[in-house]
Design brief:
The chain is of the alpha+beta class and about 200 residues long. It is about 35% helix and about 25% strand. It has a single domain, classed as Glutaredoxin, CATH 3.40.30.10. It contains five helices and nine strands, in the order H-E-E-E-H-E-H-E-H-E-E-E-E-H. The structure holds nickel (II) ion. Nickel (II) ion binds next to helix 2.
Amino acid sequence: MSRLTVFLVAIVGLAIVTAGILYATLPTDEGDYPQRSSGAALIGGPFELVMHDGSTVTNETFKGELMLIYFGFTFCPDVCPTELQIMSNALDLVGDDAEQIRPILISIDPERDTAEAMAQYVSHFHPRMTGLTGTADQIAAAARAYRVYYERVEDPGSNAAYTMDHSSIVYLMDKDGQFITHFGPGTKPEKMAETIRSALSNS
Ligand code: NI
């Protein structure tokens, strides 16, 4: 083989390998956006929890609505209120279509976060904000489904006696409860609203 031939064979070989990798990592669903990779599909799933009005709800309850889900707790001094405010501001920016979005706080502190405590807390944020709590087992199952880390940390110096460490991620799920995307801490409400609008127009 000439040098040129060797070169061309190498290029073609590389292209085939690259195409294979791209194919394997392509979103599994049709459409440009929202993108769903096969890995992302591992986030979410069935849950059974208690809503802030005391009723039992499951993932099926919110079918037909996009869910914007955050795991946190009402005693959280700063991170949770900040993120819940960002979610609320994003919904305000979305406007009338926000009726199709269900913003949800799932408590990771079942000991203190009764349905009544959740009702009072979520009322400080968006009118549509939905508080979900439950037994320790129900919450552990929901957190596992969403790959959320949380842990009780003793805090004897404070009135609260303990606090909760937890991951701070906002999940956007489609009308069938499938993962669309997530937002890291401190995402701008404008950016979140834009992503929600795109998701609505693709749903
Ligand atoms: Ni928090």
